[in-house]
Specification:
Number of strands of chain B: 10
Structural class of chain A: mainly alpha
Distance between the termini of chain B: 58 Å
Number of helices of chain A: 10
Oligomer: heterodimer
Largest sheet of chain A: none
Order of helices and strands of chain A: HHHHHHHHHH
Distance between the termini of chain A: 174 Å
Structural class of chain B: alpha/beta
Chain lengths: ~300, ~350
């Protein structure tokens, strides 16, 4: 038989065979197995495409699957491996789901749609059943016992690992955690310093502001006091001005008098008349004396 | 698709979709999350305080501080462009800050609520006020972050705290009000000391499993049914991928804080009794006087309605409101329902109280 004549292996068997080949990717990548499987699935698609795939009756296939599955669960329940009654409930529900889906008369071609049909048909019942179980004292007793065993194991394993690595003079997680704690303590001290500085900054800023405000207020008071004094000063100034004006007017009159006297002195009658006038004292003696002096000359 | 029969072209398409789905299941969901531009303005140990760059004119002088829980990561509040609470608030002109607790290491197993409520949050508040030059701020806590912010508000009432906003924040831990958590965390079955002694910090997967087991069929099966359904129907996978990434992105829960959370809150319900003491300081929720808005989801199984509503009867605030949405614990924050429900509600409430 030539290579070309070799009969095609079923696509699904190829998928598994290739995924188990164990190439490098599989061994290096933790997800390698499923990646290889998905790759094989892709190749299987290529094989399916050109082939003339036979149509098959899904309803029949699923009926078979249901029967096989329920039989397996029922068998497990009968063997006593179902302390919580979970399997029995599951089997009953499977029957119920089969009845519901069959009653609809339509079965989806792809497994996911079918699964959704199944989920929609059963989820409510299933949720209630599970809820009843996990909310029971019996379940809690089992869970509590499991948790106790598990934590005891974890504690023992942890202690043993610590001792083992200590004996090997290798640092453990606890050692690293201790170092980290020291770092956190240092950070905590830096935080406290930061907080203290912030407090100082705030206090300083606050006191500076208070001083500045007090200074400004003082200066403002001074300005206000000065403003209060100003009207009085201005009033005094006006009085002085008025006095000056009056003095000016008096001076002007005296000047006029002086002129008049000079004119009188120019004539003999006037001189006589002036002499008689000099006998009476005037308000501005200085000026009068001057005039008198002039008159003697 | 044909019924009862299939063709090669159907198979080809199905294989491709199957490949896409299998890659998501086996390699985990990959999505760009937390993309709103931000800067780190302060760090303390693993915690970071982010400031989101404003994209609109700052219309409100009161900045918002978001405080997230110690479970999973805070980027659920800034899930992805177009589907982000943070992006929405920033776009509405709010000045937004977020406190991210980071990923605790083994060295952080001693961290307790004393550290978070009395050290981390107050320091973050100081930095926020200094950075924003604001005199007051709004505190918004999500889930356990809401419980923590309520405790902060009780211990530091008055200025600078202007408003308190709680999103699905459990306050009352009466077993009958907590659904399955009431049973699972009961002293009869659950001893937190054993977990803390065994692991130091409680692994993220452990916490995640606990949360998922409240609705196991929905969380373990339904979620992937939705995924396959979307893939098969050729619908956008962006939001599903982002949410799935977040759900599987758990961080360890600091051991001492976990011990307190289970013992003092879940098992002894001390918060509503006013019996929580942090470094000797009693946490009395009656000291809260600021405006309060508490929002809860009717379908929330992690923080049930009565758990969240309890605070309304304990605070002294005159301006207080309890608002419910027809959503679950996380669905309340993102997606089309959030855009129609939570976001506009927050906006309208904050707008009136942030001037």
């Amino acid at each position: 038989m030539t290579k070309e004549e070799k009969p095609e292996e079923p696509a699904d068997s190829n998928v598994w065979k290739k995924s188990m080949d164990g190439d490098k990717e599989t061994s290096l990548d933790p997800y390698g197995l499923y990646r290889a499987w998905l790759k094989s699935v892709g190749e299987a698609q290529e094989q399916i495409k050109p082939s003339s795939m036979k149509m098959f009756d899904l309803k029949e296939v699923w009926q078979q699957w249901f029967e096989a599955t329920t039989a397996a669960w029922q068998s497990a329940a009968e063997k006593g491996a179902d302390p919580l009654g979970l399997t029995t409930q599951w089997s009953e529900m499977m029957e119920e789901a089969r009845a519901k889906i069959s009653a609809e008369g339509t079965i989806a071609a792809d497994p996911f749609t079918l699964f959704k049909q199944w989920y929609d048909a059963t989820s409510e019942t299933w949720s209630k059943a599970v809820g009843d179980i996990i909310g029971s004292d019996r379940f809690m007793q089992m869970a509590s016992q499991f948790l106790e065993s598990y934590t005891s194991f974890a504690r023992t394993f942890h202690r043993a690992s610590e001792e083992y690595f200590s004996n090997l003079q290798l640092p453990t997680r606890s050692d690293i955690a201790r170092v980290a704690e020291l770092v956190i303590n240092v950070e905590e001290k830096v935080d406290q310093l930061d907080l203290a500085f912030e407090g100082l900054e705030d206090t300083y800023a606050q006191s500076t502001t208070s001083e500045a405000i007090a200074g400004l207020a003082g200066r403002l008071d001074g300005v206000e006091n000065k403003l209060d004094v100003l009207p009085a000063v201005l009033q005094k100034l006006a009085t002085v001005e008025r006095l000056e004006m009056r003095l000016d007017r008096v001076e002007n009159r005296l000047d006029q008098l002086l002129l008049a006297l000079e004119k009188i002195e120019a004539t003999p009658q006037a001189v006589r008349s002036t002499n008689s006038t000099r006998k009476s004292p005037g308000p501005r003696s200085g000026s009068t004396k001057g005039q008198a002096g002039k008159a003697k000359v | 698709m044909s019924q009862g029969s299939t063709t090669p072209s159907d198979f080809e398409s199905t294989f491709q979709k199957y490949q896409t789905g299998m890659e998501i299941i086996l390699e985990g969901a990959k999505a760009e999350t937390g993309k709103t531009p931000k800067e780190v303005i302060w760090t303390k140990n693993k915690a970071k305080l982010y400031h989101y760059e404003p994209t609109a004119e700052n219309e409100f002088p009161v900045p918002i501080l978001l405080v997230y829980a110690l479970i999973n990561r805070p980027y659920v509040l800034d899930l992805m462009p177009g589907n982000s609470l943070v992006e929405y608030l920033v776009g509405r002109g709010f000045d937004v800050y977020m406190l991210d607790w980071g990923t605790p290491g083994d060295e952080d197993k001693h961290l307790s609520f004393e550290h978070y409520v009395l050290d981390y949050i107050p320091q973050a508040v100081r930095k926020l006020l200094k950075h924003s030059h604001a005199e007051e701020f709004t505190l918004m806590g999500y889930c356990m972050g809401g419980t923590m912010t309520a405790m902060y508000a009780a211990l530091f009432p008055g200025k600078p705290l202007r408003n308190l906003l709680l999103l699905t924040a459990p306050i009352d831990f009466t077993p009958d009000e907590m659904g399955l958590f009431g049973l699972w965390t009961s002293e009869k079955y659950f001893n937190p000391d054993r977990i803390v002694e065994a692991f130091g910090n409680v692994p993220g997967d452990f916490i995640d499993t606990g949360n998922r087991m409240v609705k196991p069929v929905t969380n373990y099966v339904g979620s992937y049914v939705t995924m396959w359904d979307r893939i098969l129907q050729g619908k956008s996978m962006d939001t599903w991928l982002a949410m799935n990434k977040w759900v599987n992105d758990g961080v360890p829960f600091p051991g001492e804080a976990f011990r307190q959370w289970i013992r003092e809150f879940y098992q002894q319900n001390k918060l509503v009794k006013g019996a929580i003491k942090l470094r000797g300081r009693q946490v009395d929720l009656a000291h809260i006087t600021c405006p309060l808005l508490s929002i809860a989801g009717k379908k929330d199984h992690i923080c049930t309605l009565p758990q969240a509503e309890a605070i309304m009867h304990l605070v002294s605030s005159q301006d207080k409101e309890f608002y419910t949405l027809d959503a679950g614990h996380v669905g309340l924050l993102t997606g089309s329902d959030a855009k129609r429900g939570l976001w506009p509600k927050l906006d309208s409430w904050l707008e009136l109280r942030s001037k």
